[in-house]
Amino acid sequence: MKNAIGREIPEVIGSRNVSPYAGAFSTLRADRKAGRHQKGAPQHENKILPSLEAAIEATGLSDGMTISFHHSFRDGDRVINQVLDACARKGLKDLRLLPTALFPVHAGIVGHIESGLVSRIEGSMNGPIGAFVSQGGRLSEPAVLRSHGGRWRAIEAGDVEIDVAFIAAPQADAYGNATGIKGKTPCGPIAFSAVDAQYAKHTVVLTSDLAPYPVYPMEIQQGWVDYVVVLDEIGDPDNIASGTLVLTKSPTRLLIAQMTTDAVVHSGYFVDGFSFQGGAGGISLAATKYLGDEMEKAGIVGSFGMGGGTKMLVELLHRGLIRAILDGQAFDLDAVRSIREDEAHVMIDPGMYANYDSRGCATYKLDAAFLGATEVDLDFNVNVNTHSDGMLLHGIGGHQDVAAGAAMTMITIPTLRGRIPVIMDSVTTVTTPGEVIDVIVTERGIAVNPKREDLKERFLAARLPVRSLEEIKEEADAMIQPVRKPVFGDEIVAAIEWRDGTMIDVVRKVEGFE
Amino acid sequence: MKNAIGREIPEVIGSRNVSPYAGAFSTLRADRKAGRHQKGAPQHENKILPSLEAAIEATGLSDGMTISFHHSFRDGDRVINQVLDACARKGLKDLRLLPTALFPVHAGIVGHIESGLVSRIEGSMNGPIGAFVSQGGRLSEPAVLRSHGGRWRAIEAGDVEIDVAFIAAPQADAYGNATGIKGKTPCGPIAFSAVDAQYAKHTVVLTSDLAPYPVYPMEIQQGWVDYVVVLDEIGDPDNIASGTLVLTKSPTRLLIAQMTTDAVVHSGYFVDGFSFQGGAGGISLAATKYLGDEMEKAGIVGSFGMGGGTKMLVELLHRGLIRAILDGQAFDLDAVRSIREDEAHVMIDPGMYANYDSRGCATYKLDAAFLGATEVDLDFNVNVNTHSDGMLLHGIGGHQDVAAGAAMTMITIPTLRGRIPVIMDSVTTVTTPGEVIDVIVTERGIAVNPKREDLKERFLAARLPVRSLEEIKEEADAMIQPVRKPVFGDEIVAAIEWRDGTMIDVVRKVEGFE
């Protein structure tokens, strides 16, 4: 069947019946969410277990079950590998992983897939695991990719059941209260796991810093936690900023950041109380910095900036240019420190941030958002998951949630990466539909979605370089070199959920190249 | 049928089938909790409604439905009366009220019961409403009294469904984020309503201080809130400390406070990391003060004190005698200020505090608790709900939750009030069973539950005045004047739930006096 944006979607994927994407705000379930598992506790109890193996035994973790993790340590995580190694030692097989995201540090999972320990993955797969899965024939069912808000929603709705949630906690007490902003290796908020902790049949907190009761803030509450295991190491915070989080030095990207800032300033949204979110890419970071300077110049104070928390955002708070930061994950250690020290740097969980099945998300309060993409197309559809070689290399993150929420969503991209085109006739994979994208900013000009004539007029009045996306594409296409086009097989290796649980696209096996 | 402590309980009360009390930690439900209602929201939405009447219309509130409230303003609340008056103006009838607690300020509810607007009440009824209900024939079904933790549990379990939650919020933004510790009239934590907000079909925030987005800390989250109504007045914080919250000047009570402190000091629990909770009565407040002095003398630092937050507790934190305060409700304005200013004064919700159906309550981490009573009996059962004239005049509060949780629960009572006895052969109403009571401290001596020979030995070794409860009773009985004994009718006016949802006792109509 074809979904609302014309993507061919099977009616059944693996063991699930598929609801096709029907529009960004089309579904409204009238039924109830899943009920949490009843838990009780005796008056006094020791929740401390001596090892991961002991936790596997105590929770009854066995073949075919689902285990979950958060990604707050990003590429510095040491928990997922340790847990899977322990599962391997216990001879388990056929596990389903439900991480929020996997990173290159988790490349060892490839071996666990080959050995049969891991047979399914639902979660973002940044880098090697995604590339491996793209080869096809690796998992027993297609992977499922969800946005931050979509994952929260799916767990609450009962779309996916967690048997054991393993939660890396930089600091925890023996009764299970835990936080990510304190301890020996603070990584920032860990409330991505709050929904896991509440809905899992069993919840295990893993910490390298067992502190006296009570540990606070209670991002993870004792009442949700069955067991606590102390590990020598849970993660390396120096790696949370790895990957995309470097302020760009590329003149092209700095130009795009400047044009993005100009567009915001002339959008009509740039007034007192203005709110915004940038992604973690170099362009977004630069745009955040430029935007702060413009706010200062104009005497505007923003209501809030939203994170991933970064040094750039914290500086805006400290300069009094925004009244608050709403932060679900730290992208650098300056952000972690600021959460501890600045009352106005407020931790929020992904439910508040982005849950479609709620009475309103923080993303819905955004005036402007600037986000990245691997590809865009002439319908303004955005791909952040696959590259044009067809390989599944990135997760969704909050892309869908922010794009759907912000009054003005801007995609900030160079038209070429090397000499590979970024603007396509049709994106390889649709992550986020064009209907929620307002503006695409490139070094060759600013394209405005035809739905937003109002913005186009404002930009033209401000003499910004507004051009049609077709025109920009044509100009860029003259400079591309022939790329090796993927040949896709029939096998679906991953399903891309829209944030409401419907299916917006699928990713197929890469069989070779033309 | 008789329950585990020998109280006669009917199998059916009103429209509910009764599970008899079976022991303090006997039930363990293996099933699931209730699912929350699915809610959705468009991208941009105005949740502000112009009036309570508009909120009644928008939520579809109609005859026979259930509405809920918190009691954080205590006797200063202005919301319940305004909402009920609006319901009366809309011609509604047969509503069920689910407040956390009612106070004398809500005496006007008597008129609403008489008019048929209110026909059922589940919640604490301090003072006039309880007295009125005690007369019998007033409500269409017996009232239900639950502890703080019991109410949270009941809502999560689906024992009681809320149609519309009305939440008094000292500060809120237009999207529904709300807190009790800021604004024009801060009253302290309002997270008693967090479970209402999450489980109600509709949630309405009522505020007298609409502040710019985002209001934080988000005790109530936007994603749970359907509508926001601005009212001129929601409550008077000067009245949160009314009633019991006065440091006693009575020599008898000060003596009891001193003996309580002595008992704690010699209990074996009085070591570094010690934790405790006092109630809101004069003896408890004095004992908290004395205990702080003993901690200072002994060089002991406690792990946490638990609230109701009071000036006494805050002083201990400021003197460095406890590392943290865990606080679910403020009993005075010093506590409210401290929550705003002291990072270690941590707000917790009643779920974390006391939910039986969780993997451990904060009350389970208590070493010592000193609580009040209207009556105790020779089985160490405690009554906090009725007086010996049979009248239902008080709620349960956290009494059951704390008594069940603390390693050493002490009831601190004078043996006589005026010349009315406090120690009975059998309490008029069992609120909290003797099995979770360890020590009863009176001005005539300290009685130790026979289950706690260990404590008795320690107290005797410290030459504390340990006596049997029978002996103390006999001595006190010599001084009583004849009291008018109530004559109870058959009608059950209220059911007293144990914190796990089983029935520990019932309160019957007072028909007259002997």
Structure write-up:
Two copies of one chain form a homodimer. With 514 residues, the first copy, chain A, is α/β, with parallel strands linked by helices. Chain A folds into two domains: 47-122 and 160-239, Glutaconate Coenzyme A-transferase (3-Layer(aba) Sandwich); 251-486, 3-Layer(aba) Sandwich (Glutaconate Coenzyme A-transferase), CATH 3.40.1080. Helices cover 25% and strands 24% of the residues of chain A. Chain A contains 14 helices and 30 strands. In chain A, α7 packs across α8 (282-298). The longest helix of chain A is centred in the middle third of the chain and has 17 residues, at 282-298. At the A-B interface, β3 and β18 of A face β3 of B. β3 of chain A pairs antiparallel with β3 (32-37) of chain B, so a sheet runs across the interface.
Low-confidence stretches of chain A: none
* Strand line-up in the sheet with most strands of chain A: 19-18-17-16-20-23-27-28
Please report which band the strand proportion of chain A falls in: under 5%, 5-15%, 15-25%, 25-35%, 35-45% or over 45%.
Answer: 15-25%
Q: What would you give as the CATH superfamily of the largest domain in chain A? A: Glutaconate Coenzyme A-transferase
What would CATH call the architecture of the largest domain in chain A? Answer: 3-Layer(aba) Sandwich
Work out the number of β strands of chain A.
30
Note the total helix count of chain A.
14
- CATH class membership of the largest domain in chain A: Alpha Beta
- Radius of gyration of chain A over alpha carbons? 22 Å
Rounded mean pLDDT score of chain A: 95
Total separate domains of chain A: 2
In one word, what is the shape of chain A? globular
| Oligomeric state of the chains present here | homodimer
Q: Tell me the greatest interface.
A: A-B, 65 and 65 residues
Major sheet characteristics of chain A: 8 strands, mixed
Q: Approximately how much helix is present in the residues of chain A? A: 10-25%
CATH topology of the largest domain in chain A: Glutaconate Coenzyme A-transferase
Q: Structural class, judged by helices and strands of chain A?
A: alpha/beta
